[in-house]
Amino acid sequence: MRRRIALLVAATTTLVLVAFLIPLAVLVRTVAFDRAVNTATTEAQALTSVVSTADRSTLELSVQRANAEGRFPVTVFLADGRRLGARAERTPAVRLAARGRSLTVDTGDGVAVLVSVGDSSGGQAVIRSVVGDRELMRGVHRAWLLLAGLGLVLLVLSVLVADRMARSLVRPTRELSAVSHRLAGGELDARARVEAPGEMRDVATALNHLASRIRELLAEEREYVADLSHRLRTPLMSLRLDAESLRDGEESRRITEHVDALQRAVTRIIEQAGRRSSQTPVPDSCDAAAVVSERLEFWSVLAEDTEREMRSEIAPGPLRVAVGDSELSDCVDALLGNVFAHTEEGVGFEVRLFSAEGFARLVVTDDGPGFDGLESGSGPLSRGASGSGSSGLGLDIARRAAGESGGSVTLGAGENGGARVVVDFGVPAE
Fold first, then answer.
1. What does the alpha-carbon distance between residue 384 and residue 82 come to, in Å, rounded to a whole number?
2. Sign of torsion over alpha carbons 164, 166, 168, 173
3. Over the Cα atoms of the chain, what is R_g?
4. Do 94 and 112 form a contact (C-beta atoms < 8 A)?
5. Which of 124, 140, 156 is the last residue of a domain?
6. pTM of the predicted structure, to 2 decimals
């Protein structure tokens, strides 16, 4: 932006200088020309009284003195054909002036001033004064250099002033950009200075207001999450008491474990909301092999109850990934939950975990009907997108978990036409 403003001002200043300096240079040339011609004419006219009244010897002395003291050579052509002063030919212009007409003619290397005057013999004499090109251009080149120097100085000053003004505009813009990046990085205390000029002050004020509003919304979110946890504790406690009061000990233990898992899930949600609201989130990692194996053991019970064939191939651990164990557990639960929710009972599935191309790759494939809308680009990977009446958040949980680790999620079809979800998790830096 600074460079563009400087170039714009330089171009505009150059046009203005050209529009003024070229006519001024021509005017200087014209003034010098007229000054030299007028001086030569004055010197020639100074001899008219001598030519009209003095005798030849006096006239000759006057012409010699004029040539000695003046800057321009003077020649007097008398009516009887004689010539006094500087050597010169009787040109057609001289003969024209001898008829009583004074004039100025171009000689090729200067200008000749011809003054017609009557001499003492009663004839018509001509006084000729020659102005050379050097005299016509006396002081012109120096004036042109001064004008060029002045124009260059004005151009440099204009660019410097424009650059200073552009800097005063660019600096607040860069500061606003830096503050916006700090806010995007979670530094919610970042604020822009409102001492910026003009509209930048309004933008800085609006950005600060936006930052304050974001902070307020996040605070409200934390309050809502905390309030939700308190609201859930009472029904969870009632559900636990009901489970413990069951006569079947095995059934009571199983339901109690489910209640505990639900309570841990609520706790993880609260912790995740707190981490998202913090200014400096701490990167987390876990052993993917251990977490996936633990979740498969949990889902194997339900798979057995629904007569589903569960096939698994887990790489030997530890297999570190740049995501927390709770986030990875939620990801695995979301993927397997989709299999149980969107396929009929008895439909098998396969889970594989292995290292591939610098990532830890989790592949979940089922033997169901597969995804709808993949070919048209309207698949269920977007948040809230679902073609089966669900919330559409399951795959988004996997996408966010993979994205936070630097990985990605890919949807496709398995070998038997079922749904295939490939989740790549980034590995932590050593």
1. 116
2. negative
3. 50
4. no
5. 140
6. 0.47
> CA geometry: angle at 36 spanning 31 and 41, to 5°?
125
CA 272 – CA 372 distance, rounded (Å) = 31
The b/e string for 300-337 (b: 16+ C-beta within 10 A; e otherwise) is eeebeeeebebeeebbeeebbbbbbbbbbbbbbbbbbb
Rounded-to-integer distance, Cα 190 and Cα 207, Å: 10
45 in helix, strand or coil?
A: helix
Write out pLDDT tens, residues 289-326.
Answer: 999 999 898 888 888 888 889 999 998 878 899 888 88
Q: Which two tokens stand for residue 201?
A: 């002050």
Residue 155 lies in a domain: no
Q: Using CA atoms, how far apart are residues 160 and 13, in angstroms rounded to an integer? A: 12
> Cβ(32)–Cβ(139) under 8 Å?
yes
pLDDT confidence of residue 152: 93
CATH code of the domain in which 65 resides:
3.30.450.20
Q: What would the pLDDT profile of 338-372 be if each residue is shown by its tens digit?
A: 888 888 888 899 999 998 878 899 999 998 887 76
CA-to-CA distance for 225 and 378, rounded, in angstroms? 32
Counting the structural domains of the chain, the total is 3
